[in-house]
C-alpha cells in the first residue's frame, strides 16, 4: 500500500541527529511490519478454523445432486487448510438447494452455506492482503502482490487501472485546472532552504486491518476515510518531483499521475521555475481543500467510488476509440416525478384518474418489455418486486403513458443481485418473511425466476385498488 500525507503543518526542526532519526524511523517501520505480520497470521488462523468447520459439515452432505459442488467445496477448504493458493472462483461456490428438499435437509444446507460464507469472507481477505509499503516496493514482491485481486490500480501493469480520478473526486479536477491556469510572475519572494527530514503529518491513513477500530475514535481520520481518502502523493527523485493522486473507491486503491515530472532546477528563461510554481500552488490549494474535508463528514448522497459529473469534463475520444480508456458506469438519476409501483399502489388515487383497462395494459406492456429484454440478454435481476420498479407520474400523480397511451414509463432499480443467468446466487441471508421467492436462499438465479416473481405479486397488486379488478 502507499503511505500518504494529507498535508504538512508548520513545525520546528528536531534537534536530534540524522542518525538518530533514521534509527527511530527504521524501528518504527520494523514495528509496523511486525504488527502487519501478526494481523495476517491471526486472520489466516481464523480462515483455517472456518475451513475446518466447513470441512466437518461436509460429512453429512454427501448427496448425489450436490456432487460437483461438494468436490469444489472440499478442494477449496483443503487448499485453504494446506495454506496453498487456489482459484478465487471457488469462493463463489454454494450448495444448491433442491426444490423438494425436506426441512431437516434445508436446515443442514443453510447452516453449511452460512459456514462457508464466513470462510469465504476470511479467506478472501487473506488472499487480498497486501504487504507493508516498504516490503511492497521490492522487485520480487511487487509483481506477485499486483497479481492479487486487491492490487493497487496504478497502471502497472497496464490492465491495473481504475476510473479517472477527476470523475471520482472534484479535488483532482480542480488540481488540473489550476495546473494549467496562467500564473503571474514577480509577485512572490520565496526562498527554498535545505532542511531536516523530520515532518509531522496532518492526516495519516490508518489501516483498519492493523489498528482495528481505533480509526473510528479519530473524527478527522473517520471523515477522511468516508470521503474516499483522497490524497496527493509527492514523489521525489533527486531534483525531480511529480505529483500523483490517490483514492479508495470502497474496493480498490487507485493511483494516477496528475502532472508531468518537474525539475526543481534554475532556468535562464524561468520556464522551469514557472512550472514548479504552478505545481506547488496547485498542491497547496488542493491540500487546503483536503483539510476542510477531514473536518467535515461528506454529504448524505456522497458514495466513494461512484463517478460524478462536474461543470467541466475532459473527453478522451481518441484513447476511447482505441480501447485504452477505462469503462465508466453511469447511473440515471430519477427525479421527484418517479415513484415505485409499491408506493403508487398505496398513495395514488387511480380509481377514476384514467381508464382502468388502459392503465393496466400500459403497465403490463412495460413490464413485459423489460422481462423480454432480460430474457433475450440472458440476464437476471433477482428481486423484481413492486418496490424495485419505478413508474413515472405527472404533477397530479397520474402515470405518464408512452406510445399513444399503450405503454407506461417504467425503470428498474436495485441491481445488487443482477448478473448472467445461472452465474449468480440468492443471498444466504435474505428476508425469509417474503414467501414469493422463486427459489431457496443460496440457490442460483436462473432464467424465468424474474418472470415468476412478477407473476406472483402482479394479481395482488391489481386487486389492491378499488376499480381495478
From TrEMBL:
The chain crosses the membrane at residues 221-248. Residues 1-34 are annotated as: Disordered. One of its GO terms (molecular function) is protein kinase activity. PROSITE patterns: PROTEIN_KINASE_TYR (PS00109). Signal peptide: none annotated. Keywords: Membrane, Transmembrane, Transmembrane helix. Residues 24-34 have a biased composition (Basic and acidic residues). It comes from the Eukaryota. InterPro entries: Kinase-like_dom_sf (IPR011009), Tyr_kinase_AS (IPR008266). Coiled coil: none annotated. This is Uncharacterized protein. It comes from Grifola frondosa.
